[in-house]
Write a structure and sequence with these properties.
This protein is of the alpha+beta class. About 30% of the residues lie in helices and about 30% in strands.
Length: about 180
């Protein structure tokens, strides 16, 4: 007999607070219980580094220093990673997994009989059985992979609030920055 399918949901968060970049990954089970949490220490660049890196500094910090270093430390294996919609310009792969940027939408409508509506090449509005609709941006333009991501999101949304764990990561990272100030 096969063991029951375990649906791990990955979350990635990156933000800048007081000029310091910080990121975190949270992996939960199918109901949102934390399985693994990893974070980076706050990273600040000096004036010389800002000058030398120029316009690529934010992308370099976000994708290489924060995201890639967290991916190397990860032990869990979620199928996909969810991040906030504000991160859509930085979507890529994390630990070899595609990413999905999500945002809640109050009035979601799709094609008649459909469960999602494509709004752009890499974006869609997804209807879920439970909770609000979701505006999604995908890290891939492959429509078959996007459809799998949509199905995965709809399945996960049946057992948990998909966006709430992302809020937990943000709060936890801000707490860690606050703890660092006290040292």
């Amino acid at each position: 007999m096969k063991p029951p399918l375990r649906r791990e949901v990955g979350y990635f968060c990156h933000f800048v607070l007081e000029g310091k970049h910080m990121g975190g990954i949270l992996v939960t089970n199918e109901i949102g219980v934390p399985l693994e949490f990893k974070y980076t220490e706050p990273v600040a660049m000096n004036r010389l580094q800002k000058t030398l890196y120029g316009a690529v500094l934010d992308r370099y910090l976000h994708e290489t220093v924060i995201r890639d270093s967290l991916a190397r430390e990860l032990h869990s294996d979620p199928k996909y990673f969810i991040t906030g919609f504000e991160e859509k310009e930085y979507l890529g792969t994390l630990a070899g997994r595609e990413m999905i940027a999500l945002q809640e939408v109050r009035s979601a409508s799709s094609e008649p009989g459909g469960s999602f509506a494509r709004t752009r090449d890499r974006e869609a509005v997804i209807l879920t059985d439970e909770g609000p609709g979701l505006r999604a941006a995908f890290s891939t333009s492959d429509e078959a992979v996007q459809q799998d991501m949509i199905d995965w999101l709809q399945g996960a949304a049946r057992t948990m609030d998909l966006l709430e764990p992302l809020d937990r990561v943000k709060v936890a990272l801000k707490m860690l920055i606050g703890d660092e100030r006290k040292r």
